[in-house]
């Protein structure tokens, strides 16, 4: 059992290493069981109730594995008669990919599998061989989140009012709206090194995603500060090599922008790119781009180390974590409900300690957020996680810590309400 577990993880990481060379952002093996037992469970739906995933022929690829997999199980095609070291499934190419279909046909289930595919899965999960590029970022609107000094001007123009805090080039808010929070999350993800974005229309701000021709005719461009995502999605890929996978069931506005369109019907996938393009050609949207300028990379932001205070009472460092939702950092609470790719409480505890270490680095040498993330990752690669707390520094096991991605460290930093940057 131990050998099978280790070999399964080795296979998953081997596939992950093949994605970039193959021009893919994700791989979904034929036979994978994507649905979960319920919305509150990560256990797979029993095989007799689930429809195993099967790739559309046009997107099917083959990957090489270092270890053989059993004929039935492990996300492999159960029709195989002997162990194999090659696995077939759907390759999700770099670029702009739409996942479309009717309600309850499996669109969000597929996206959630890709969202969780950044982590290895245990044997028997059903998604063992759903493998995503390591720096894919799930983005959603987060009404009420804190935003500090983020340049959201590529998406949000001049906002009404005279409050300088609403300057989109240095936007700050203690209570961001759906559209401004989503814009900030995208810019922050790019700053942290994201190579792709995952979005589901159900959790996005509608006015941030698109503006149709009728609304453009009624509301003049001069009165609308938002450049919708539909006008930036191609630019993100073509000029900045950032791919997008988007679930969209209620609008065809993204048909013209998509490189690939995957339709789900009764949980079965098919590629319908040509049909979507033909529909777009026949039924013009009569909308014009709202993009007013080119999308530029975010300017470096430099944290003020005095704004990263982990002390509480007599304790110089006091960091606590609560489930997958919150970190108590000194006297501040960090709300991470919008960081949807965290899967274990040990990651949150580690993130809290990462912020303490980031403060120490900031006191030593002034650098940008992305440079601090580089420095943290270099330390982890070199020394592991042992140096993050007192036990590890004294040669004892540091306890329950799991290494987070740089994207989640940045997400916590950006949601710290005391944070100040320039």
Can you count the helices? 11
Q: Please describe the biggest sheet, giving its number of strands, its sense, and whether it closes into a barrel.
A: 6 strands, mixed
Question: Which residues sit in consecutive blocks of at least 5 with pLDDT less than 50?
Answer: none
**Mean pLDDT reading:** 92
- Order of strands side by side in the largest beta sheet? 6-9-10-4-11-12
Distance between the termini: 52 Å
State the helicity in percent bands. 25-40%
Topology:
Blueprint: H1 2-19, E1 24-29, E2 60-69, E3 84-93, E4 96-101, H2 107-116, E5 130-132, E6 136-138, E7 147-150, E8 171-173, H3 178-192, E9 196-200, H4 206-209, H5 213-218, H6 233-240, E10 243-247, E11 260-265, E12 268-271, H7 273-282, E13 319-322, E14 326-329, E15 332-335, H8 345-364, H9 369-383, H10 390-393, H11 406-414
Parallel strand pairs: 4-10, 4-11, 6-9, 9-10
Antiparallel strand pairs: 1-3, 1-5, 2-3, 7-8, 11-12, 13-14, 14-15
Task: Please provide a written account of the structure.
The chain is of the alpha/beta class and 422 residues long. Helices cover 28% and strands 18% of the residues. The protein has helices at residues 2-19, 107-116, 178-192, 206-209, 213-218, 233-240, 273-282, 345-364, 369-383, 390-393, 406-414; strands spanning 24-29, 60-69, 84-93, 96-101, 130-132, 136-138, 147-150, 171-173, 196-200, 243-247, 260-265, 268-271, 319-322, 326-329, 332-335. The strands form 4 sheets. A 6-stranded mixed β-sheet has the order 6-9-10-4-11-12, sandwiched between helices. A 4-stranded antiparallel β-sheet has the order 2-3-1-5, with helices on both faces. Helix 3 packs across helix 11 and helix 8 packs across helix 11. It is globular and about 60 Å long.
């Amino acid at each position: 059992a131990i050998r099978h577990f280790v070999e399964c993880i080795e296979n998953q990481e081997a596939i992950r290493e093949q994605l970039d060379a193959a021009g893919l952002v994700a791989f979904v093996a034929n036979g994978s069981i994507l649905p979960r037992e319920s919305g509150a469970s990560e256990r797979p739906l029993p095989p007799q109730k689930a429809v195993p995933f099967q790739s559309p022929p046009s997107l099917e690829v083959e990957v090489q594995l270092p270890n053989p997999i059993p004929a039935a199980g492990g996300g492999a095609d159960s029709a195989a008669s002997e162990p194999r070291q090659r696995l077939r499934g759907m390759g999700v190419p770099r670029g702009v990919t739409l996942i479309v279909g009717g309600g309850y046909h499996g669109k969000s289930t597929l996206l959630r599998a890709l969202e969780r595919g950044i982590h290895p899965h245990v044997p028997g999960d059903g998604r063992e061989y759903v493998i995503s590029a390591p720096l894919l970022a799930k983005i959603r609107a987060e009404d009420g989140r804190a935003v500090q000094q983020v340049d959201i001007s590529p998406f949000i123009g001049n906002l009404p009012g005279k409050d300088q805090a609403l300057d989109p080039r240095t936007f700050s808010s203690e209570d961001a709206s759906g559209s401004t929070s989503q814009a900030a999350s995208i810019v922050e993800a790019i700053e942290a090194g994201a190579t792709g974005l995952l979005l589901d229309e159900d959790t996005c701000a509608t006015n941030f995603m698109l503006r149709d021709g009728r609304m453009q005719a009624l509301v003049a461009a001069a009165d609308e500060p938002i450049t919708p995502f539909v006008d930036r999605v191609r630019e993100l890929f073509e000029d900045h090599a950032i791919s997008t996978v988007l679930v969209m069931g209620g609008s065809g506005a993204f048909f013209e922008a998509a490189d690939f369109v995957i339709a789900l019907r009764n949980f079965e996938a098919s590629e319908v790119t040509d049909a979507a393009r033909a529909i777009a050609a026949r039924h013009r949207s009569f909308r014009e781009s709202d993009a007013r300028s080119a999308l530029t990379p975010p300017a470096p932001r430099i944290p003020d180390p005095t704004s990263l205070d982990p002390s509480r009472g007599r304790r110089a460092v006091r960091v606590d974590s609560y489930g997958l939702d919150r970190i108590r950092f000194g006297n501040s609470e960090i709300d991470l409900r919008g960081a949807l790719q965290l899967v274990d409480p040990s990651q949150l505890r580690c993130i809290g300690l990462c912020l303490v270490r980031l403060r120490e680095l900031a006191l030593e040498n002034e650098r940008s957020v992305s440079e601090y993330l580089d420095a943290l990752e270099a330390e982890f690669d070199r020394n592991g996680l042992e140096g993050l707390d007192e036990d590890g520094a004294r040669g004892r096991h540091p306890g329950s810590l799991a290494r987070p991605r740089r994207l989640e460290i940045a997400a916590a930093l950006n949601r710290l309400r005391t944070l100040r940057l320039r």
